[in-house]
Amino acid sequence: MSFLRKEVKPRNQTRHSQDVVKERRQTLMKLLSTKLGVIILSLGLTICYSKVWGADWKEFAEATTGSFYYDMASVTSPSKDFFRV
């Protein structure tokens, strides 16, 4: 009666399946480590190499409604004693 016989896996197949699981875990950890490294590198480059572009603003006047500024680079002199901002 062979249909009543319980199948027993050889010991080598069990060892092989454990090795496969271990390799999958190692591969997953390498993948996660790589992703984490890329994220940290991207954030570091973004923070360290960010450069702010802006005008060189000088204060022109201060009033109750607020402070007024002008851009030094946009100042032109169409004639003597007159300035265009």
At a glance:
45% of the residues lie in helices and 24% in strands.
Question: How would you characterize this protein structure?
Answer:
About 45% of the residues lie in helices and about 25% in strands. With about 80 residues, it is of the alpha+beta class. The chain folds into two domains: about 10-50; about 55-85, no CATH class. The strands form two sheets. A two-stranded antiparallel ribbon has the order 1-2. The chain has a two-stranded antiparallel sheet with strand order 3-4. A hairpin with a 2-residue loop joins β3 and β4 (about 80-85). The longest helix is centred in the middle third of the chain and has 38 residues, at about 10-50. The protein is rod-shaped. It starts with 10 loop residues before the first helix and ends with a strand. The model has no long low-confidence stretch (mean pLDDT about 75).
Strand order of the largest sheet: 1-2
Beta strands, count? 4
What is the rounded Rg?
A: 36 Å
Question: Biggest sheet: strands, sense, closure?
Answer: 2 strands, antiparallel
Secondary structural class: alpha+beta
Q: How many separate domains make up the residues?
A: 2
What are the segments in which pLDDT stays under 50 over at least 5 consecutive residues?
A: none
- What is the distance, rounded to the nearest whole angstrom, between the alpha carbons of the first and last residues? 103 Å
Helix content estimate: 40-55%
Mean pLDDT over all positions: 77
